[in-house]
Design goal:
The structure is a single chain. The chain is α+β, with helices and mostly antiparallel strands. Among the domains are: 95 residues, Immunoglobulin-like (Sandwich); 206 residues, no CATH class. It contains twelve helices and 37 strands. The strands form eight sheets. Strands 1, 3, 4, 6, 7, 8, 9, 10, 11, 12 and 13 form an eleven-stranded mixed sheet that branches. A seven-stranded antiparallel sheet has the order 25-24-37-26-27-29-30, with no helix packed on it. Helix 4 crosses helix 11. The longest helix is centred in the middle third of the chain and has 26 residues.
C-alpha cells in the first residue's frame, strides 16, 4: 500500500524546508520520534463516524510497517521517509464499545471506542461559551450524564503553518467533564446540539469543540478556500505571498535577496571608501507568515488542519460578531470557509449549519447588523447543504453573549435531523420570505417554512415591519396582519407602498414565527425608490435649500463644487445646515447639523478657502443634530456649538478660551496662525459635549485631507493630521440654508 500521510490538497505536503519544520509545534517534525504514535484526535473514548470510510494516520520509524486493527478489519501501511503513514478502514455501523490498535515497533491501543455520529463545532465566543456560563447551569451540569456522548476540546493555538497535531483528549460526557476547562467548560451550543442528536438517534455522538472567542472568520479559513472565491482574490494573494511554499513567495523573496545582495556590495564599497552606507533594505512585511490569532489561516493552521481527515458527519458554526462591519462580503467569506473545509476533508458537500448572530446594541449605524444578517442568510441560500438558525427571539440586547444556548443547540439539531437523519416531519426552520405582491395601498408577503401556520410569539400585533412610499419619505413603521400563510403590511400615511423591510435594526426582536416557535429572520423586498438620504433621515431638510454640493473625492485647490448656488441665492437666510456623508465597507455614516446663521454672506458658508475670505471662530446657537454615528449627541436646540472655519495653519493652543477645550490637543479650541493659505480647518463642534461633530481639514491635499464625524478615536479629536480622506470610497458634503 502506498501511504498518504495527509490529504493531497493540503499545503503541508509541500512542507520540506528545515526552517518551516522547526516552526511547527515542538520545533521538530513528528517523524523524529521512533515509536508508533497517533494524533490526539484518536484516543480512548473517541467516536468514529459510522457508514463512512475511516482514515487512520500517525507516525512511526521511517520505513516501518504498522498494522491497524478495528473490529474484524486489519490494514497495513508503511511510514514514509518523514515517518508519516496513513490507511483507510471500511465503513462500519454504529455501536460499541470497541478497541482500535495500531502496532509496529510499539503498540497504541484506543479503548472504549464507539461508532456513531461525529460533528465539528467551531466559531468565536458564542460557540466557545461553556455550559457553566449559560442558562440554568447548575441543573444542566448535574443532568449531563450521557456516557455515549463524547467530548473533545481542541486547545487554543494559532500557528504560522499547518500543524500535525493539537492538545486535547476525548472525554466521556459527565457532570464533571462537561464543566471542565475553557470558558465555563465545554461549548454549550455544541453540547446541547449533540445531546439532542444523541437523544433522537440513540447512537453515540462525538463533538469536537474547536473555537476561540473574538476571532474573525479569515483566521479559520484554509488557503484553498480563499483560492476558490474570486471576491477574495486579494486575500488569497496575501496568503500566497506569506507562504514560503508558493511561487509567489519565492519570486518576491528572490527579488528581496537580489536587492540585499546589491546593498551588501554598496555597503562594502562605502566601508572601504569610509563613506556613508546606504540604508539597508527591510524585509517585506508581506512575506511574513501569520503573526497573530487574527491573521488569515492562523487558526486553520493550529486548530482545524490537525483534525483533517478525521471522518465527520458535518460541522456547526457560530461566528460573525467580529466581521459585522463587512456586510455583504461575509457571504463570500462563508463560501471560502465552507468550501475550503469541504475540499480538505474530501467528503463532498458535508452538512454545515450555522447560527445567525443575535440582536445586540453595537452602537453606530443601527442597520449595520441587518445588512450582516442579510449576508448570513445569503450564505445559507447560495452554499449547498447549509442551513441557518435564527435566534432574534432569544438574544440579549445588553449582552453580546446570550445565555440561552439550549435553544441554539436544539435549533441546530433540527436542521441535522431533518436534512441528514431523515426526520421528514421535523420543522427545522422559521418563516422565510418567499414573495411579495403589491395590492391597493398594501403589500402581501408570502413565506416558506410556515410549519403549522404563522403566529405572533407574544400574541401582540406583528412588529418590526416597515414600508416606503413610491413618491416621498423614507421607511415608516407599518401595521402587519397574518392572513393564512401570508402577511399583509400597510401604513396609513403611505399611499403607494413599493418596498418592505422586516427586523431591519440591530435592536429588532420581532414576534413573527411559525406555530412550532421558530422565528422569522430579517429581510427586505421590493424596489426602494432612489431617494436622497438627507430627505429620508432629516425631516427638517425639506425647509432648506441647497447652496453647495461637494464631492469630497474631488478635493483640491481650488475647490470644485458639483453645485454652487451662492451667487444666485436671492433671499436672506436665518439658518445654515451641513450634511456630511462618509461611506466605508458598505455602510454610510452621516451627520446633519443646522444652526442660526453666523454670516449673511452665502459666499462664506462653504469651504473656507483663502479665496472665499471666510474666517470664523465663534459660537453658533441652536444646533439641530441628526446622526447615525455612535456617541454623537443628537437633538434640537442644543447649546454649546462653535465653529472653526479658516484657511490658515493652526496650533493646539486654546487662545479663544473655548470651554472644555485643551491647549495640548487639536480639538474644538485651536488657534489660527500664518500663513493664511495653510492647512485649513472646517470644523463644527459641540463643546458642551466635548465633541467634534464633523471636520474637513487640509482639503488642498485631496485624498490625504483630514475627514471625520465625531471625535477621532485616537490622536487628535478634530481629525487634524488624519490624512484619511482616501479611506472613504464615497464622501459628500452639502451646505444648505433656510430662507424664512
Amino acid at each position: 500500500m502506498n501511504p498518504i500521510p495527509i490529504p493531497s490538497s493540503s499545503p503541508l505536503r509541500a512542507l520540506t524546508t528545515a526552517s518551516l519544520l522547526l516552526a511547527m509545534a515542538g520545533g521538530v517534525a513528528p517523524a523524529a520520534r521512533a515509536e508508533v504514535r497517533l494524533p490526539h484526535v484518536f484516543g480512548d473514548h473517541m467516536v468514529l463516524q459510522q457508514q463512512q470510510p475511516i482514515t487512520v494516520w500517525g507516525w512511526a520509524q521511517p520505513g516501518e510497517t504498522v498494522t491497524v486493527r478495528f473490529l474484524d478489519a486489519s490494514r497495513q501501511a508503511a511510514a514514509n521517509d518523514r515517518g508519516e503513514w496513513r490507511t483507510v478502514l471500511g465503513p462500519v455501523q454504529a455501536g460499541g464499545p470497541h478497541t482500535l490498535t495500531v502496532s509496529g515497533s510499539s503498540t497504541v491501543t484506543c479503548r472504549d471506542v464507539w461508532v456513531g455520529e461525529v460533528w465539528l463545532c467551531s466559531g468565536q465566543s458564542n460557540m466557545e461559551m461553556g455550559i457553566a456560563a449559560c442558562k440554568d447551569a447548575p441543573q444542566e451540569i448535574a443532568a449531563a450524564d450521557y456516557p455515549r456522548l463524547r467530548l473533545l476540546k481542541v486547545a487554543k493555538k494559532w500557528a504560522p503553518v499547518p500543524q500535525h497535531d493539537f492538545e486535547g483528549t476525548w472525554k466521556v460526557c459527565s457532570p464533571k467533564s462537561v464543566a471542565e476547562g475553557g470558558w465555563g467548560g465545554f461549548s454549550a451550543s455544541a453540547y446541547y446540539f449533540g445531546r439532542e442528536l444523541h437523544r433522537e438517534l440513540g447512537v453515540a455522538v462525538g463533538l469536537i469543540d474547536s473555537s476561540w472567542g473574538g476571532t474573525v472568520i479569515q483566521t479559520w479559513t484554509p488557503p484553498e478556500g480563499f483560492a476558490a472565491v474570486p471576491a477574495l482574490a486579494m486575500d488569497y494573494a496575501r496568503v500566497q505571498l506569506a507562504d514560503p511554499r508558493t511561487d509567489a513567495h519565492q519570486q518576491r523573496l528572490q527579488r528581496t535577496l537580489d536587492e540585499t545582495g546589491q546593498w551588501l556590495e554598496a555597503a562594502r564599497k562605502a566601508q572601504a571608501d569610509r563613506a556613508l552606507v546606504p540604508p539597508m533594505p527591510t524585509y517585506p512585511a508581506e512575506l511574513l507568515p501569520p503573526r497573530d490569532v487574527q491573521h488569515a489561516t492562523a487558526l486553520y493552521n493550529g486548530m482545524i488542519h490537525p483534525l483533517c481527515p478525521f471522518a465527520l458527519r458535518g460541522a456547526i458554526w457560530y461566528q460573525g460578531e467580529s466581521n459585522l462591519g463587512e456586510g455583504p462580503l461575509y457571504t463570500e467569506r462563508m463560501k471560502a470557509l465552507v468550501g475550503g473545509w469541504r475540499r480538505l476533508w474530501g467528503l463532498g458537500d458535508f452538512p454545515f449549519y450555522f447560527v445567525q448572530v443575535a440582536p445586540y446594541n453595537y452602537g453606530g449605524n443601527p442597520e449595520t447588523e441587518a445588512v450582516f444578517w442579510e449576508a448570513q442568510a445569503a450564505a445559507a441560500r447560495f452554499i449547498p447543504h447549509t442551513g441557518m438558525v435564527v435566534i432574534n427571539d432569544i438574544g440579549n440586547l445588553r449582552d453580546i453573549h446570550p445565555n440561552n444556548k439550549q435553544d441554539v443547540g436544539k435549533r441546530l439539531a433540527l436542521w441535522a435531523l431533518a436534512k441528514d437523519y431523515a426526520r421528514s416531519r421535523v420543522v427545522y426552520c422559521g418563516p422565510t420570505f418567499k414573495a411579495m405582491t403589491l395590492e391597493d395601498g398594501r403589500i402581501r408577503l408570502a413565506f416558506d417554512h410556515v410549519g403549522g401556520g404563522l403566529a405572533s410569539r407574544d400574541g401582540k400585533p406583528l412588529s418590526w415591519f416597515e414600508v416606503i412610499d413610491a413618491d416621498e419619505g423614507g421607511f415608516v413603521k407599518a401595521n402587519a396582519q397574518i392572513e393564512g400563510a401570508t402577511v399583509t403590511v400597510w401604513a396609513p400615511e403611505v399611499k403607494r407602498p413599493v418596498a418592505v423591510r422586516f427586523a431591519w435594526h440591530m435592536l429588532a426582536e420581532p414576534n413573527l414565527m411559525n406555530a412550532e416557535g421558530l422565528p422569522a429572520g430579517a429581510f427586505r423586498a421590493g424596489t426602494v425608490p432612489k431617494r436622497d438620504s438627507l430627505v429620508i433621515h432629516v425631516p427638517e431638510a425639506k425647509h432648506y435649500q441647497l447652496v453647495y454640493d461637494l464631492d469630497l473625492a474631488k478635493l483640491g485647490n481650488p475647490i470644485a463644487y458639483t453645485t454652487d448656488h451662492h451667487r444666485t441665492l436671492a433671499k436672506r437666510f436665518d439658518r445654515i445646515a451641513y450634511f456630511l456623508e462618509l461611506e466605508r465597507g458598505g455602510d454610510t455614516a452621516f451627520v446633519y447639523v443646522s444652526m442660526d446663521a453666523f454670516t449673511d454672506d452665502p459666499g462664506k458658508i462653504g469651504v473656507p478657502t483663502a479665496a472665499s475670505g471666510a474666517h470664523f471662530q465663534c459660537d453658533v446657537a441652536n444646533l439641530n443634530v441628526h446622526s447615525n454615528v455612535k456617541g454623537i449627541v443628537t437633538g434640537t436646540g442644543l447649546q454649546g456649538g462653535n465653529i472653526e472655519f479658516w484657511p490658515n495653519n493652526y496650533g493646539a493652543d486654546n487662545a479663544a478660551k473655548v470651554p472644555n477645550a485643551s491647549s495640548r490637543a487639536y480639538d474644538f479650541g485651536d488657534q489660527p496662525v500664518q500663513p493664511t493659505a495653510g492647512h485649513g480647518s472646517m470644523q463644527v463642534h459641540n463643546h458642551h459635549a466635548k465633541q467634534t461633530l464633523f471636520a474637513l481639514n487640509n482639503w488642498q491635499a485631496g485624498p490625504k485631507a483630514d475627514l471625520g464625524i465625531g471625535n477621532q478615536p485616537a490622536q487628535q479629536p478634530d481629525w487634524t493630521f488624519a490624512a484619511n480622506a482616501a479611506s472613504y470610497p464615497a464622501k459628500r458634503l452639502r451646505v444648505l440654508v433656510r430662507c424664512p
